[in-house]
Design goal:
single chain, mainly beta, 3-stranded antiparallel beta sheet, two-stranded antiparallel sheet
């Protein structure tokens, strides 16, 4: 008995997202940066078109700018989503990512990816229903934590990144 033709295979949903990046301030002063008011990278994601416009989309945000680090310090910045490059000298940059490869151990004994402690999932609201906002705090200590060569003292007043 053949079931060919009788199987209903769901069509694959497709969506186009708009991702925007802003900062909490257009400029940053290293001398005035404090832990109480950290500089922030703010990412917004919204659905601009979708084959299922009334449905939200849940994505694994692992290693992306939408990974907000809800599982510790290992957010999208730690995993390499950004570097801060000098406008005047592209060879000067502030590396925000961890230089090594984090060891998370083996996969848990569950096939459900949502139960894996090092994966993060976020839901982007349906088209026209809002957007996902992800904020990454970037205090001075965090900004230079993984940078191997530049230190805050190496940044000259007025230098733009």
């Amino acid at each position: 008995m053949s079931l060919e033709g009788d199987i209903n295979v769901p069509t694959r949903a497709e969506a186009h997202l708009q991702i925007t990046l802003t900062t909490s301030s257009p400029t940053i002063s290293l001398s005035q940066l404090s832990a109480s008011t950290p500089f922030q990278l703010i990412t917004a994601a919204r659905i601009v078109s979708s084959s299922k416009e009334s449905s939200p989309i849940t994505r694994c945000t692992n290693k992306s700018i939408l990974d907000n680090g809800g599982h510790g310090q290992h957010d999208g910045l730690f995993r390499g989503a950004f570097t801060i490059e000098s406008i005047s000298d592209p060879n000067r940059m502030i590396q925000l990512r961890f230089a090594g490869t984090p060891n998370y151990g083996g996969p848990p004994d569950t096939p459900n990816l949502r139960e894996w402690p090092f994966l993060r999932f976020e839901t982007i609201p349906a088209k026209g229903q809002g957007m996902l906002i992800v904020k990454h705090d970037l205090p001075l200590e965090r900004m230079f934590r993984y940078e191997p060569t530049l230190k805050p003292a190496d940044i000259k007043p007025g230098e733009k990144f």
